[in-house]
C-alpha cells in the first residue's frame, strides 16, 4: 500500500482532498457491484454427510437463500485432518493449562493433526480473499463459543472455543464469523450479512493501493451506516480520517479498519436508525411537497414505534431520491448495505 509523501489536505478544512488516485476513482458508490463475497462455511451445513456419525446439519437458509449471493469455501476440519466419517466423536479436554482435542471414547489425542490441517487450510484460505465464515455451533473443531470443555476424568468443567474456530479467528481477526444457530435470530443474521458486505468493500479498498483521499471517500460513503450502529465510534473514525495525511499511513489504515468492523458489530437500535433517516430526510425536505414530507415523517415514526419494518421508510426515501436526486445521500451505503433480497422484511431492531 502506498505511503504518500505529501499531505493531501485542502485549503479550507484541513481534510484530505476529495480527488482520488488515478485507477481507483470513486468506487464506493451505493450499489457498486463487487461480485459475490467469498464465504467460508462448515461443510455439514451445506448438507454434506461429513459429521462424526455420518450425518449432516443442513441449513435451509444457507443453501436456499444465501447460496444465491455468495461464493462458498466449504471445509470440514475433521475430514480434512483425515479422520473420515463415521468417526469417533471428539471433545475438548483441559490438561493442565492447555486444551486438547481428543476422541471421547478412546482418549486418542487429535490436537496436532487438527492444528496441522488448520495451518494448511488457512494458508489456502488467504489466497481466496474470504469475507466471512459460518461455523457449526458446539462443534469441538468449529464451534465459536459454548463448546463443552471437560477434565481428563470426563467431568464437564465449562465451555471453550473449537480448535479450527480459534485458529480462524487468530488468522483473520476482522472477518465476520457467525455460528449456524445464531443465524436463526433475524437481527443477528442481518447484522452478520451487513458486516460481510462491509468487509468486502473494505477488502476492495485495501486491494487498490489506497491514498488518504481514498479513505475520505470510503468513510464518507459509510458515514450514515456507521452512525446507525455507534455514533460516537463513527465520529472517532472521522478523526482518524482527518489525520490520515499525517504520521504512519499504514497504522492509520489498520486502526481505521479495526474500528470500522468493530463499529458494525454492535446492534443498530431502532432509535439510531430513525435518527439517521431524519438526517437523510433533511437533505431533501426543502425540495419536497408538504404532503410527501408528512408521509415520510409518518413512516419513520411508525418504524420508531416498531409498527412497521425498516424497509418501509427506506423504500420511501429511495423513491423520493429518484425524483429528487442528491449525490451525497444516494452515495450512502446505508440505503442498501447488502442485496435487498437478504433483508427479511420483518420488524427489525
From TrEMBL:
User: Which superkingdom heads the taxonomic lineage of this protein's source?
Assistant: Bacteria
Region annotation Disordered: where it falls in the sequence: 1-31
Q: Which organism is it from?
A: Sulfidibacter corallicola
Domain DUF1722 positions: 223-339
What are the Polar residues biased-composition ranges?
Answer: 1-22
High-level lineage? Bacteria, Pseudomonadati, Acidobacteriota, Holophagae, Acanthopleuribacterales
What name appears for this protein in its UniProt entry? DUF523 and DUF1722 domain-containing protein
